[in-house]
Structure formats: structure tokens, C-alpha cells
Design a protein that fits this description.
It comes from Novosphingobium ovatum. The protein is of the alpha/beta class. It has 2 domains: about 325 residues, Alpha-Beta Barrel (TIM Barrel), CATH 3.20.20.30; about 60 residues, no CATH class. The chain contains 15 helices and 9 strands. The protein has an 8-stranded parallel beta barrel with strand order 1-2-3-4-5-6-7-9, surrounded by 8 helices. Strand 4, helix 4 and strand 5 form a beta-alpha-beta unit.
Length: about 425
Amino acid sequence: MAKQLHLWAFLQGIGHYPSGWRHAGARPADVWSMDYYRHVGQLVERGRFDAIVFGDQLQSRKGGDRTPERLAMPTLDPMALLSAIASVTSHVGLVNTLSTTYWTPESLAERFWTMDRMTGGRVGWNIVTSAHPDTAWNFGDEPMPEKSARYRNARETVAAAQAIWRRLNAERGTSPQQRPVFVQAGQSGDGRDFAAHTAEAIFCPAATMEDGIAFRSDLRARVAAAGRDPDGVKIMPGLSFILADTQEAAMAKDAALIALADDDLCIEYLSESLCCDLTVFDRNAPVPAEAILEATILPREDIAKVLERPVSSGMSLLQFATTYVRTPRGHNVFRGTPEQMAEMMISWINAGASDGFTMQPAYMPGELEIFVDQVVPILQARGALREEYPGTTLRESMGLPRWPADMGPADMAQAEAV
């Protein structure tokens, strides 16, 4: 019997490509309307996805104190969007992103307990610690805590929230899942250790199958070392895609989409990613690495890694920017036919490179519509994707045990001690 894969939909903004909002199949103005989210939610549910994921950010989106003019990246409140989608769907999971650094255990627990109860058990929590330094100034005059401190606080916050959920379930009647499914996306050593002790689904970049195998093997080993069952944690790398009837047509479609990202848009997208206003530099000169490292408000070591290859290869700033938009955020980008995409996804599952995929359509909603209409039936015919949901909760869709069976001994002890 074929291994079954899991599908998540990461539906931030207008699509994964920074130029996606300019495509004829995109509907950028519709992101402000309920009809758009009704359509997207029901489309994902028709594709038998486990869940929809919305990210969040607690600071303005800008590059070095300059608001981009050519990027379409609306970041609306994910809880409001997911609540709206919940009202027009019945099975698909709803994963919200909230920070342990700037939300208290009490507010997190109440928020998720209510939504889990109201949706019949379809809620997940994408646990983040926040990373952008500008976030801190929206919550007072203290600077952002350093990374290891943020993760220590995250462990304490999650444990405290779990104690509150136990109390709420005892006082008000148990919510369908007892607590939300825990999702995490940290890539650092601290992030991976936190995920190994806490997460039930992990979102990650994996540009190649080899990258996926390495990441999944590392996390499964860490999960086992934490006293948990590795099979109770799903590894869900991001996958963007461009689909067409032939390989050649898909490549041409991709090239046309990339061409919509003019030079100014590419520079602005890279500025936003590096948190440094690159418009002040000569775009035809070599990448100004030292100036970028001096100006960025992100950790220098993280930005230095991003700059290493373009600097060593002698790229100009514009060449770096136009190359960067071709592999947004370092995720795998598939270009080909629906049949080829289904085969690629199945091969990754069989090779142990992932347990499923977090789908990131190049533009919305057109490319997602093509995937659901043309790739999903192939996966189902191959026995790699269910035809019906196994139950009504997100845990059932993901094949996860009920809490607290999924917690390791150390986590149980910590939660009970709160």
C-alpha cells in the first residue's frame, strides 16, 4: 500500500512569488473580502488538506525604515481570517501563528481553547518566539531578548498554557482536541531542540530531496532523544509550484512570472528580506556586504550566511536580487506537469524526505486551483492521498494521538509542575 502524504496550505498574501500578485490568475484586491477566504477555504478542503496556515508579524513590513512600494504582502490578523474560514468549512484544520514572547500563557490558552471548542477541534498553534527586532518596540521600551532566552521562555509559556488547558477542560468541559496541535518552524539548534520537545508538525525549507532527508533524520533523532515517538511528529517542508500541460510550458510560465518582477521590485523584495534599504546602493556594483551587515537590524550572522554565496561568486547587487526572487525564502520550487508533480511528491515521501508538504502557490488563487483540480486526483488515484477525511479534528486528519499521550516524560513533568 502506498504511503499517504499530508498536505498543508500556507496562504500568506497573494502567493509565494513576490511578483505573483501581478499574474492574471491572481486576485490581489480580493484579499480584503470574505468571498475570497470562503473560496480558498472550501478549495483547500475539497483537496483534502490537513490544514490552512497563516503566518503573522508584529512589526511593519519594511526594509531599513523604507516601506516597499511594489510588494503586495498584506498581513492581516490570522485569527480573524481563520475564524472566517471556519464558518464556511467543516474539516480542514486552522493553524494560527502567535508568539510566546509577546503573548501571555493566559491569553494564548483562552484564545485557542475557545477556537478549538467553536470549530469542533480543528485548531493548531504555530509557536513562534518572534525574531524581528522592531517587534519589541511595539510592546514597550525593552529590546528583543536574545534567541536562547526566547526559547527558554517559549518552553515555560507552552508548559503554563498546557496547565491552563487542563484546568479549562476540567471546569468547562473538554474541548474536542483538549489542546491545539503544536506546530513549529525554527531552524537553529535552539529551534530544533524546542521542536523536538514540543512540536507535532514542523515547517521547514528543503530545496532538495537530500536537504529534506537530512532535516527529517535530524529531527526524528532529536524527538526520540526527547523521549517522544518520532512518528508522532510530521515534517512538512515548503513546496512552491508552477504547473502547466508540458514541462516546457511550465518553464515558460515560470519565466513569465519572474519577468513580472522588474528590477525595482527585486531590489525591494531583497531589501525587505535583509531588513536593509538597498535602494541607496549602486545596483550594478558588487554586493555591498559590509554596508549591508552594518545597516541591517537582523542578526549579522544570519545575514552573513545569505550574503556568502553572492559575494563569493562576484554577483552585482541586481544579479543577487533577481536571483533571490527565483527561490523565495529558500524553499523547493517545482516546475512541471501535474503528473510530474504527483510523482515528485510521492518520491519524497518514499525516500523519507518528508511526511507531507506545506503548499505555497506561486500566486493565488489560480495556481492553488490548478493543484486541487489536477494534482490531487492523481495523488488519490495512486493511493497517496485520502479521498475522505478520517474524522472531524485536526489530530484525526494528521493521524496524531490525543493529548497527553503525545508528550514526553520531561514535558509532562514540566507541565504538571506549573
